[in-house]
Amino acid sequence: MTQLPISSMALDPKVDTTGAAEQRLDQPLRIAEIFQSRQGEGFLTGTESVFIRVSGCNLRCRFCDTPYASWQPEGPLLTVDEILHRVESFPARHIVLTGGEPMMFPQVVPLTRHLSDRGYHVTVETAGTVYRPVQCHLMSISPKLSNSTPDRELHPRWWKEHERRRHQPDVIRQLIREYPYQIKFVIDRPEDVEEAERFLAAIPEIDRDRVLLMPQGTNLETLREKMAWLEPLCQQHGFRLCPRKHIEWYGPGRGK
């Protein structure tokens, strides 16, 4: 499998030329947390980064590990200027805009532009269900497989909405066409790998060298159990393995 150097992703971010972004500078975003830590997943694993976690999501994953940004969104309302001020108090020069689902909100367009203008490397974490013309150096897309759908009996409304929204192939095609990207599938059971294969067969434009398989779990014991069978499956199918290193380094919890 070809190793992709990080420098191969350092392309110019997309520029918003509509002018509409300026109108959103004063519109606040609900922010669950802003903190500095090491990136624990994907191509930039180990990179010191400032994480901006937007609160609010259009999906309700069964195994969501940040319910305070999805199932029960919380946090203060901050303007773009207030977010930038907080970010600049940290030394790291990489930004991870995550959630929840940050691409739901139009304010992320001016936010990413101002971050890029200040010389930050910007990663956007998204499920790939919503498109916005953000400025982004790495689009980190985590398409939701059927293993993510909440229980139909316990959450009938969200079961229906999640199933309707989780798979938006046209959005993913646009994102991978316009941005440097990585694709991360959350794998909960061995059969999920076959579902990921079917997903990729339907969108052949996706570069398999940019596909990572990540075990589902929020504690080290669970992750190790799943890594034991996921690693050979990755080798068999020619995928990259994506450990959740932040769980190993810091354990579960917020702001880590």
Describe the secondary-structure layout.
Blueprint: E1 29-38, E2 48-54, E3 77-78, H1 80-87, E4 94-98, H2 108-117, E5 121-126, E6 138-141, H3 156-165, H4 169-178, E7 181-187, H5 191-202, E8 211-215, H6 220-237, E9 240-241, H7 245-250
Describe this structure in words.
This protein is an alpha/beta fold and 256 residues long. Helix content is 29%, strand content 19%. The chain has seven helices and nine strands, in the order βββαβαββααβαβαβα. The protein has helices at residues 80-87, 108-117, 156-165, 169-178, 191-202, 220-237, 245-250, and strands at residues 29-38, 48-54, 77-78, 94-98, 121-126, 138-141, 181-187, 211-215, 240-241. It has a nine-stranded mixed β-sheet. Helix 2 (108-117) links the parallel strand 4 and strand 5. The radius of gyration is 17 Å and the shape is globular. 40% of the residues are buried.
How large is the share of residues in beta strands?
15-25%
The largest sheet has its strands arranged as 3-1-2-4-5-6-7-8-9
Number of helices: 7
| Quaternary organisation | single chain
User: Structural class, from secondary structure content?
Assistant: alpha/beta
Could you report the average pLDDT, rounded to the nearest whole number? 91
Shape call: globular
Q: How helix-rich are the residues, as a percent range?
A: 25-40%
- Count of individual beta strands: 9
Our measurement of the CA-to-CA distance between the termini, rounded to an integer number of angstroms, reads 31 Å
Order of helices and strands: EEEHEHEEHHEHEHEH
